[in-house]
Each structure stands twice: as C-alpha cells, then as structure tokens.
Recover the amino acids of this structure.
C-alpha cells in the first residue's frame, strides 16, 4: 500500500487501535484488514454459504489501492468493540423540557461514538411565549442551542474527533432574526454550523419584494410579518461577515424525500450534504477519482470508466453491508435507519483529476466533466442498488415510498458529495469536489529545518518541463497561487488554479453540476477573497437558488480571524530571497515580552474561603497580564498564582481570550460550592470572570470606564493587535499548520485535525 508519510502519521494519530497508554497496537495494513473483514461479514447475514473471505479481499483491495474509502467512523470502529460506523445523524428537538434534554443526551452518545448531529430547532416555541405547564415564559431556540453547544464541548468524539452539530431554524420561525445573529460573534456557539431553512414561498417573496408570515410553531398561527427582502439581506450580510449562517432550501430537500407520507426532512448533518429524517443516520464513502485515471503511452491521462464502474459497485456493496453490521448508539436510530437504508457515495480528488487531464477547474469543460462523471457514478450506483435488492430485498418502507412503482431497490438513496477531510489526506488527493487549496507551502520540521511541500501533480508537471526548482516553489508558497508567476508558462497557470483563483460563480456552477446527479446534497464551500463585497455574496446565494442547489456555504477569506482557531501571529523569518515564511509548530512560539508599561483593573472576587484579588492588565495589543493575591482568610495562593501566570503567557503567545475563558470558567472548588449565593465556583472561575469583564470593555470600546492605554517603550517588540493576523496565520491549534475551509468546517491537512463551525 503506497501512502504518504503525512497520511501514515494521520492514520497513526487518529485511526489505529491503541492500548491504554495510547500506543498503537495495529499497523496501517492491519487497520484495513480489520475493516474489510468486519464489513464483509454482513454477506453471511443474507447467504450462509457466502464466501466472506473473498468479499473481504475485494473490499481490502479497493481500500489499500486507495480507490475507495469509507467515512472515518467506519475506519476507526469497524471490527472493534464500539462498532459505530456512521458519520451522519439527525435528532428531533421536541418542544418540551424532557424532549430537549433527551436530544442533548442522545447527541452526547453520538458524539462519543464518532458521529455528527443535525438538529432543527424550529419546533421550539419562540422566546417570551407562555409555558402553560409552569406559567412561565419560554427562553426560545437560541438559549437551548447554547446548552447543546456546552454539552458538545464536554464530549470529544471517541478520543479522535471533535463533536460537530448543524443547527437549522425555519425562516418563518418568530425568532429568525435572533437566530441569524446568534453567531455574529465568532466566539459564540462554536460547536455548531448554522443554516436558515428557506422555503420556495419565502424566496418568491424576496423576488417580488413582499412580506411573509412568521408562524408560531406551537399554535401554527401567524404572529407577525416581515419583509422577505430585509430578512434575506440580513442573512447575506451576516454570511459576508463570518460565513454564518448558510442556507438550506427545505422544500428542495423534501422534494427528494423518499417517504414524504411518513415524515418530513427538517435538518441535515453538520456539513449540510446529508438530509435525514428525525432519528435517521447515514454512512458515507468516497471514490478517489485520481485512482481512476490511467496513463497513456504519450504521458497523458484518461479516465478509466471500467475501473470506475467496478469501484462504484464495490463501494455500494460495502456501504450496504455497513448498515447491517453497524452498532447504532440508540435503538430508535437503528430502527429508523434500517427502514430506508440510505447510503451516500461521493468522490474525492476531483480537482487533482482535472489537473492530470489538463482541464481548468474554472472552465465550462471542467464543469461539464464534473457533471458527466457524477452522472456515471449515480447511474452505476443505482444499477448495483437494484442488483442488491434482488439478492437481499428492498428497504422495508419501499412500498410506502415514491419509488414503489419502479424497479425494487435496496437503498432509498445512493449518492452524496461529502467533504472528505482526513480521508483525502490518507488518499493523498484534493478534498471532495473542492479546488486545490494551495499548491506549495513551507513546513518547519522538528529540528527547525524548513521543507517545501509541493502538490505532486504540479511537481511532476514542472519536472517534465525542466522548470522545477526549490526557489520557484518557495515563490509559489509565498504568493499562494501560480497566477502571477511569469516563470511558469501560461498554459500551466491556466490549469493549475487554486481555490482563490476560482470565481464564486464557478464554485456554484461546479456544485450545481454535481447536485444534478446526486440523490442527497453536495457539501462545498464557495470561497471569497477578503475584499469581496456583500453584493458578491448575495449574487452567489441567488445563483445557487437559480441553479438548483440544495444549500450553500460561503467563506470570505480572513472573516474569522478572531475565532478560536486563530492562535495569533507567530514568529516569522525570511529566506535569502526575502520571502517571509511561517513557523508551523505552536511548540516553537515565543511569547511577546511583557510591556514595560500597562493599564488595568483590580477586582475583588469573593470565594468560599475568603477574598481573591484579580488584576488584569492590557496594552495597545490587548490583555497581556493577569496576577492574583488572596485576602487574610487564605485561599489557594500558589494555585491561583500558577493559573494567572499560565493565562498571562498564553495571552502573550497569541492564544485567544475566548479559549482561555473556555478552559477556566466553571471549574468548581468544594469550598466555594458549599457556600450559598456565591457568584463564582472557584479561584480559576473568578479569574475568568475578571478577564472576561476587561475583554468585554476592550471589545466595546468602553473608554469612559477604562484607564487609558499608556505609551509602551517595548511596543515594537510585541505581538500583533487582535484580529490583525493575515491569511497565512489562521492555524491549526494542534500543529500550527494553515487550515482549509470546506463545507462549513475547517480541516488541517497536516495532522488531520478537523472542526465544524
């Protein structure tokens, strides 16, 4: 099996089985054999004489040749005690306290097992509505989303993946304006992607400039009217600001609902590509299109449709088997999933395939090929679906579905285009149907030796033309694109386009091309340059609607610089050509020196064993120092001092205030908890409260309540102001490498870290 060193590292860190001390107890080859054998066992469920060893060998070849890979939970858990193999789940949120907290519990179990969850909060009565059972008033969907968010923060998926959620609210819910704004601050509701559920009626009202009704979900009555155009503009402006919210066209999801008489589709998985009924799950997999190419005698490449057909048939067989051997985290999900047996087969490496074929991503030829390839995959997938039905029977709700008058099928849906994240790292190809993010970058290895990483197809192309040099690669890494490098011939620059070379229009065109032959939906991010306008975003939303997309996610470069993933500006150096490069590993960050002069506050915080005095100082770059002292009653002076010192060095290293607060707030001390009426739960919690108060004042510009920022003699040696980080420094919190945005999530192609929202 040929995989890159980086892929081997990601597999070792996140997928290989480990002992109690965290040491790997299986090899990469052993992982794929484990998965192949476990999934092949399903054949014996339908035929006691089935040659499961031969089936396992077929599955093993597809995976080890990197022709097909299933979603991450299958790689992690197949053949192991947990046995939860699905990536996508949707849970209902009922309008009762019991229903809400039951959903939170179920989501925690799913996150622990490696899955992501989608929710519609549209059933919840709006904030301020009367609660008949108590005589009180409802707090509304947004407040409960925050509770879901906190629960997700406490659960890390299977020790290898972080919890991820999708939150959807119908555009006709009375709290829609608050929902659109609920992630206006990048530090809020950080474990959710959010999307507004738009209806065709709403979009028609936007086009006509009309008002539309807001409907109370508990009474089903209209409570007021809003201008559809103004609401739409608010969605667009917020998306321009930081990419949230996205939009989902609910009526289009339900147009393709296979069992509309049974239940309504009201939400999707976290990245938006998998619409599901309440309590339904789906397992995904992707065909590597680069592995479907064959090299001709003249050095050119062509897509081998015979190999693609064989791989698609194997993949559909594999994914149907997953449903059978899967150990679902909740019995209701097991039952609902098996009623429809949905699978989601997609692709990865599409952009790399275009490079090999010499076709620009941002061309009509590229769009047409995308549609042709997906049409073929969908056609073969459904042929295999019908073949499986003959041998194994239809999905149980077939006779109640919209497919009942056609040829019997095994699976209610077959195709989905997911963001492939770490799967594409393992395969060593571009992600999903996204363009290539970057063709060259500089990595600092452990001994601080710099190494230029280059897209293998670009390297191969330039070497064949005698153009490759490390100096040129450094220039590409510095520019971020080939577009303006005259040393590279125009015919190469025309083909080797990266994400920001592709116009938003072509991003949407490509998404629509794949959507036309995809049963479920397409996860894709429309990338904008930082200078893009609100009008540019509106045009993309309009185009996605006109071209038949089921939703759209956008990301404007630099629009989330202050989010948790931004660890500030790290040390930079220059090579002999004056090209600036980035240090990739947070372990090498040197905190900026303490300023000679600071301004600040000291506040007394009452704790269970006395008083704690917390001082928070700042300069023109933000909060830079925290220290504490205790009153006569004692307390824990050494622990408080240690907490303050660590917070200080973290702040001067560029760690966001939000991340520090997340680590400190809510820590509980018995001596404090035992005292009634306390406003803080421990010394660390008290420190967090004062830091937040000062940070809020700085953010709000509350100069009337703040000491002035005094001149700082050492300011030039300090760090950067909040939000000043440029594109090169939105880094992975685990390894310091630049992250990519895809399908509403971020993924690090260096270490495999991923996080939605």
């Amino acid at each position: 099996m040929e995989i890159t060193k980086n892929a081997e590292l990601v597999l070792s860190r996140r997928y290989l089985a480990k002992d109690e001390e965290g040491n790997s107890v299986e090899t990469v080859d052993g992982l794929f054999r484990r998965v192949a054998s476990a999934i092949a066992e399903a054949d014996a469920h339908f035929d006691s004489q089935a040659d499961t060893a031969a089936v396992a060998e077929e599955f093993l070849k597809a995976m080890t040749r990197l022709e097909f890979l299933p979603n991450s939970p299958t790689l992690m858990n197949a053949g192991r005690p947990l046995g939860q193999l699905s990536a996508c789940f949707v849970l209902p949120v009922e309008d009762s306290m019991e229903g809400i907290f039951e959903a939170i519990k179920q989501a925690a179990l799913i996150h622990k097992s490696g899955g992501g969850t989608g929710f519609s909060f549209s059933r919840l009565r709006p904030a301020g509505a009367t609660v008949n059972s108590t005589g009180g008033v409802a707090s509304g969907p947004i407040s409960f989303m925050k509770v879901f968010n906190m629960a997700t923060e406490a659960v890390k998926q299977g020790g290898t993946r972080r919890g991820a959620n999708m939150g959807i609210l119908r555009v006709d819910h009375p709290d829609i304006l608050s929902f659109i704004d609920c992630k206006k601050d990048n530090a809020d509701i950080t474990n959710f992607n959010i999307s507004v559920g738009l209806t065709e009626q709403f979009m028609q009202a936007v086009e006509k400039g009309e008002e539309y009704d807001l409907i109370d979900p508990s009474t089903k009555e209209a409570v007021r009217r809003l201008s559809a155009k103004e609401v739409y503009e608010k969605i667009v402006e917020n998306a321009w600001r930081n990419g949230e919210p996205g939009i989902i066209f609910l009526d289009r999801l339900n147009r393709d609902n296979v069992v509309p008489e049974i239940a309504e589709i009201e939400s999707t998985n976290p990245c938006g590509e998998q619409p599901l009924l309440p309590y339904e799950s789906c397992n995904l997999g992707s065909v590597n299109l680069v592995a479907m190419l064959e090299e001709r005698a003249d050095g050119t490449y062509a897509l081998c449709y015979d190999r693609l057909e064989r791989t698609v048939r194997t993949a559909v067989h594999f994914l149907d088997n997953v449903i059978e051997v899967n150990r679902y985290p909740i019995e209701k999900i097991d039952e609902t999933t098996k009623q429809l047996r949905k699978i989601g087969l997609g692709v990865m490496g599409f952009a790399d395939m275009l490079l090999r074929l010499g076709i620009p991503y941002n061309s009509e030829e590229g769009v047409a090929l995308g549609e042709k390839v997906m049409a073929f995959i969908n056609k073969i997938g459904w042929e295999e679906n019908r073949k499986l039905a003959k041998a194994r029977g239809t999905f149980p709700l077939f006779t109640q579905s919209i497919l009942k008058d056609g040829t019997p099928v095994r699976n209610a849906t077959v195709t989905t285009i997911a963001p492939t994240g770490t799967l594409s790292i393992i395969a060593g190809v571009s992600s999903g149907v996204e363009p290539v993010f970057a063709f060259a970058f500089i990595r600092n290895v452990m001994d601080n030796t710099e190494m230029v990483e280059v897209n293998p197809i670009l390297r191969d192309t330039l070497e064949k033309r005698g153009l490759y040099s490390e100096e040129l690669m450094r220039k590409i890494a510095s520019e971020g694109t080939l577009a303006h490098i005259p040393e590279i011939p125009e015919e190469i620059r025309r083909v080797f386009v990266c994400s920001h070379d592709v116009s938003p229009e072509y991003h949407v065109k490509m998404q629509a091309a794949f959507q036309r032959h995809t049963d479920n939906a397409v996860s894709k991010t429309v990338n904008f340059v930082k200078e893009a306008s609100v009008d540019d975003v509106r045009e993309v939303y309009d185009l996605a609607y006109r071209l038949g997309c089921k939703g759209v996610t956008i990301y404007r470069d630099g629009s989330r610089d202050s989010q948790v993933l931004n660890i500030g500006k790290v040390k930079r150096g220059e090579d002999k050509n004056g090209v600036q490069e980035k240090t990739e590993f947070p372990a090498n960050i040197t905190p900026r020196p303490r300023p000679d002069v600071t301004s600040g506050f000291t506040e007394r915080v009452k704790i269970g064993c006395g008083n704690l005095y917390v001082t928070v100082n700042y300069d023109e770059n933000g909060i830079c120092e925290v220290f504490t002292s205790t009153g006569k009653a004692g307390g824990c002076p050494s622990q408080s001092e240690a907490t303050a010192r660590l917070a200080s060095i973290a702040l001067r290293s560029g760690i966001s205030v939000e991340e520090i607060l997340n680590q400190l707030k809510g820590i509980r001390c018995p001596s404090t908890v035992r005292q009634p009426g306390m406003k803080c739960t421990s010394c660390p919690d008290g420190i967090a409260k004062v830091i937040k108060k000062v940070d809020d004042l700085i953010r709000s510009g509350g100069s009337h309540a703040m000491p002035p920022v005094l001149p700082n003699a050492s300011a030039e040696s300090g760090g950067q102001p909040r939000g000043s980080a440029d594109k090169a420094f939105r880094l992975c919190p685990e390894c310091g490498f630049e992250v990519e945005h895809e399908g509403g999530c971020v993924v690090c192609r260096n270490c495999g870290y991923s996080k939605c929202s």
User: Anything to note?
Assistant: Residues 562-587, 712-729 have pLDDT under 50 and may be disordered. The longest helix spans residues 364-392.
